[in-house]
Design brief:
By secondary structure, this protein is an alpha+beta fold. The chain has a single domain, classed as Lipid/polyisoprenoid-binding, YceI-like (Lipocalin), CATH 2.40.128. It contains 2 helices and 10 strands. An 8-stranded antiparallel beta barrel has the order 1-3-4-6-7-8-9-10. The N and C termini lie far apart (95 Å).
Length: 217
C-alpha cells in the first residue's frame, strides 16, 4: 500500500515538470523576419559612374590547363591595359576594352616563355596584341553577371563570355576617386585559336582567371 503514495508523488512531479517545460517553450520570444526582407536580394553599392582604368598593382589575367594530367600550371600576362566605362546606375550599360601585350606572358620559366612566344604558340612578332572588346552585359544577380565580347587572338576574332562577379566599390586613395573590384572566369579551347600544339597530350581546355581592381580617372 505504500507504493501508491510514492506513485502519486512521482506522477505529480512529472506532470508539473512537463507543464513548466511547456510553459517555458510557449513563453520564449520568437524571432520574426520582416516581411519586406523575405526573398529580396540586397542591392550592392555599385559606386559612381565614370571611366575606370585597371590598377596594375592589383590586376591579374592568368590561365591554367592540364599538363599531361600531372599538374595544372598557372601562367599570366604581366602587361595589359583596360578601360571600363562604368554605369553605376545600370551596370549592364557598361563597356570594357582590354589590350594584352602578348610578349608579356609569364610562366615563371624563361625558356618556356620563349617557347610560348614562338610561332608554335602565340607568335608574338606577328600578333603582338590580344584584344577583348565587350558587346553585351547581362545581370544575373545583384553582384553577378555575364559579359560577352569579341576576343581577337592570333588574327582570329570570336565571341567569348565571361562569368563576372562584382566584388565591391570603395573610395580611392586620392580624394574624389573610386575603386571597383571584379572577379571573372571563362574557358577556351586553345585548338580553336591555332594554339593546339600537343593536344591532347597537353590539355585543350584552358581556364581563364581574372582578378582586377579598377580606379576612376
Amino acid at each position: 500500500m505504500r507504493l501508491i503514495p510514492l506513485f502519486l508523488m512521482l506522477f505529480f512531479l512529472t506532470a508539473c515538470g512537463g507543464k513548466a517545460e511547456a510553459d517555458s517553450q510557449t513563453s520564449a520570444p520568437q524571432e520574426t523576419i520582416p516581411a519586406s526582407s523575405v526573398g529580396v536580394a540586397q542591392q550592392p553599392n555599385y559606386g559612381p559612374s565614370g571611366t575606370y582604368k585597371n590598377d596594375k598593382a592589383h590586376a591579374y589575367i592568368s590561365f591554367s590547363y592540364s599538363h599531361k594530367g600531372l599538374s595544372n600550371p598557372l601562367l599570366r600576362w604581366r602587361n595589359w591595359d583596360a578601360t571600363l566605362n562604368w554605369d553605376g546606375d545600370d551596370p549592364t550599360r557598361s563597356t570594357l576594352t582590354v589590350i594584352i601585350q602578348a610578349a608579356s606572358i609569364d610562366s615563371g620559366v624563361d625558356e618556356f616563355d620563349g617557347h610560348l612566344r614562338s610561332p608554335r604558340f602565340f607568335d608574338v612578332e606577328a600578333y603582338p596584341e590580344i584584344r577583348f572588346v565587350s558587346t553585351k552585359a547581362e545581370k544575373i544577380e545583384p553582384n553577378r553577371g555575364r559579359l560577352t565580347g569579341d576576343l581577337t587572338l592570333k588574327g582570329q576574332t570570336r565571341p567569348v563570355t565571361l562569368e563576372v562577379t562584382f566584388n565591391k566599390a570603395a573610395e580611392g586613395a586620392e580624394p574624389g576617386t573610386g575603386v571597383l573590384g571584379f572577379s571573372a572566369r571563362t574557358m577556351l579551347k586553345r585548338s580553336e585559336w591555332d594554339l593546339g600544339y600537343a593536344v591532347p597530350f597537353v590539355g585543350d581546355a584552358v581556364d581563364i582567371i581574372i582578378e582586377a581592381e579598377f580606379g576612376s580617372q
